[in-house]
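cron nightly-structures :: item 1 of 1
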Amino acid sequence: RGRRYRAIDGAESEAMRRHLGAGRGRPALDIGCGEGELTAHLDRLGYRATGIDCSPTAVAAARERRPGLDLRVMDFDVVEPDRLPHSAFAVVACRLVYRWAADKPAFLSRVRRLLAPGGVFWVVTSVHTAGQGPPRSWDAGAADVELLTARWSRVRVSELDPSFRCYALRP
């Protein structure tokens, strides 16, 4: 089975509702969907959500737990856009994934190409802050966050706790 991560809590759900709004049938892509929690949440918000993950075991677990969702085994770093169900997405999301992208500039470039006009890149990540002690392996560092938030017309940040943040980024 795929790894288990922090569940979406009320504060994160509220931040998503506030920054993403109702889906109204628009397409959304969840990169690194794992067992499908964020994909399911986007679906409940009214998006036509597709979850992709490079782990066949995570996708199998997601399909078992959430049989009605569009969940696919795909590696975002190498997938051809024409293999995705839509050419553009109102929301491209990655939850607890950005830190692990091997080539972050290429990752962000791919995201920008997939966003529909007016779309939102939704990122949830753990961030290392100076006062929290040594960084954890899953924390995004200052350079990662600077790269993530550069070159967007609007950046909104919701701090869920001192080291856990949601970013709503618009082109």
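cron nightly-structures :: done
The beta strands are 27-31, 48-53, 70-73, 89-95, 115-126, 154-161, 164-170.
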